[in-house]
């Protein structure tokens, strides 16, 4: 009888694309880069209210679009991030889960991290999850990852003047003022307050942050 051909064992996606193996855990929160399987839940979230006042100046330009457009563009955005990820420039789009439910996103990005050892970040939560300390804890978890595990020495952020919640998170994490800038976000001409935090000024979370899946392959990809 002819022998059955042996099927090769296929590698999992986290082996092929190392960010998919990364997980941060802090208190009730789990952060991991959004994977393909998370995108349907992500698009549901993108349709929900994120801002208290949808007409205020600090509303993200992408959020002003109709929900259908928002969903289509956010998917293109997620796929661009994956295809553009490498040591020259990267963004890890962490989804944020509280007790197993996706509630928002915490991005962290860098350009030429190996030379600059600097990260920038952006974040949002659905409106029903504001004001519970999650915004602060997810930023702190990202900063522990960047400072303690990647070896970053600076983390920068910015917020449109008047975005008091975002400013509140930055101050609560130990960021200091770092000048102003005109927004570089396409479609926005707002003035932003810049913030800077270093390992010395960082106000650490009250809970431990566990980091899993920072492999040699992922470090190489991030230049860390
Ligand atoms: C910005 C955002 C992520 C903050 O998350 P959050 O969970 O609401 O914030 P937290 O509850 O963790 O609050 C963090 C700190 O800000 C302070 N804060 C909250 N709201 C504030 C306000 N309106 N004015 C001043 N400080 C405020 C809190 O007191 C807290 O400080 P503390 O920990 O020292 O007490 C969330 O509000 C959001 O998604 N907003 C819409 C999107 C957005 O603006 N993203 C930022 C773009 S730059």
Automatic annotation (TrEMBL):
GO terms for molecular function: protein N-terminal-serine acetyltransferase activity; protein-N-terminal-alanine acetyltransferase activity. Residues 29-175 form the N-acetyltransferase domain. One of its GO terms (cellular component) is cytoplasm. This is GNAT family N-acetyltransferase. It comes from Brachybacterium saurashtrense.
């Amino acid at each position: 009888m002819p022998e059955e051909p042996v099927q090769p064992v296929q590698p999992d996606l986290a082996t092929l694309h190392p960010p998919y193996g990364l997980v941060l855990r802090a208190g009730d929160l789990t952060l991991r880069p959004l994977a393909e399987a998370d995108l349907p839940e992500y698009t549901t979230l993108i349709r929900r209210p994120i801002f208290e006042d949808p007409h205020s100046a600090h509303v993200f330009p992408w959020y002003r679009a109709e929900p259908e457009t928002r969903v289509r563009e956010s998917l293109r955005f997620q796929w661009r991030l994956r295809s553009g990820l490498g040591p020259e420039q990267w963004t890890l789009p962490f989804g944020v889960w509280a007790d197993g439910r996706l509630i928002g996103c915490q991005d962290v990005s860098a350009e030429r991290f190996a030379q600059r050892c600097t990260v920038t970040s952006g974040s949002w939560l659905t409106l029903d999850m504001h004001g519970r300390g999650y915004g602060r804890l997810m930023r702190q978890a990202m900063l522990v990852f960047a400072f303690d595990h990647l070896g970053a020495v600076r983390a920068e952020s910015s917020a449109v003047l008047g975005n008091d919640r975002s400013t509140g998170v930055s101050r609560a994490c130990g960021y200091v003022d770092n000048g102003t800038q005109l927004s570089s976000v396409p479609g926005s001409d707002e003035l932003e307050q810049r913030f800077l935090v270093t390992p010395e000024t960082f106000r650490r979370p009250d809970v431990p942050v566990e980091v899993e899946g920072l492999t040699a392959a992922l470090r190489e990809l991030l230049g860390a």
